[in-house]
């Protein structure tokens, strides 16, 4: 994963943690909106469609995995990161 992609994942996952405190539906809607925003930004930069699809396909499970780790991992609730 590139540094830019890792930064996006971290940003989205942090915001989703707040969203999950509200509802799972709110978090899903937030993730969908963020993926759309990233797609529009990449399109505006002239990134080819196939690359955008690949990036978004990699980004969504990365966000979900990181969120799962933060919420249910060994350090969840401690405020500490690995």
Describe the structure.
The protein has 82 residues and is an all-alpha fold. The chain is 79% helix and 0% strand. It has three helices and no strands. The longest helix is centred in the last third of the chain and has 24 residues. It is globular. It starts with a helix and ends in a 10-residue tail after the last helix. The model has no long low-confidence stretch (mean pLDDT 79).
Structural key phrases:
82 residues, mainly alpha, 3 helices
Helical stretch tally:
3
Low-confidence parts: none
Q: Give me the Rg, rounded.
A: 13 Å
Q: Structural class of the secondary elements?
A: mainly alpha
Quick structural overview:
The chain has 82 residues and is mostly helical.
Outline the secondary-structure elements:
Layout: H1 3-22, H2 24-44, H3 49-72
Helix pairs in contact: 1-2, 1-3, 2-3
